[in-house]
Amino acid sequence: MRNKIKRFADNAARENIIEPGKELYEQIKGCWNERYFEKDQPITVELACGKGDYTIGLARRFPDRNFIGVDIKGSRIWYGSTTAEEEQLRNVAFLRTQILLIENFFAENELSELWITFPDPRPRDKDIRRRLTHSRYLKMYQKILKDGGIFHLKTDDLPFFDFTMEMLQSFPIRNLTQTTDLYQSPLLEEHFGIQTTYEKRWLKEGKKINYLRCEMLKS
User: Taking the model in full, what pTM does it have?
Assistant: First the structure.
């Protein structure tokens, strides 16, 4: 508990975390490149980012892009925020909010790319609408992504992966690429060796990693 309280205090003092109680939290929508980032660059968002493994990994590799990790758990994003501060990564931010409220923080066409890495698959039927690739979420992603913006999903859960593929059939997309065994696929080269905490765990247990990428269109 003491560590969590300290992390929350750190978060409140950090510029790279946008959370309730801070001025930018209410004003950042549509203004990320103008109000937060030092450079006007394409924006990539990682949803349900946890400790921000992917956000940080991509930001290191692509200094010519801006990256935002989104998660409701402040004690998780503290880790990514800490790494960004230690490495002086100026192209990284973290947003603490529920993903269901994502349209409150990003304007239409503001994002170039969106990642979802190992989300809770919500396997119970009564939780279908809470799955982060349910159509109600995909509609929001379609809106905040630019026309042709790239959507990525990585998951160890094959039923969830199949569910996502089914949901995407109702949306205008192009250049869909997918695999149910990423580590035996040429697509692995596109992941730059970045692994989340969960990904490392699932690989150690011998699970296969499912991955898809597509461009989301407006119509």
Answer: 0.96
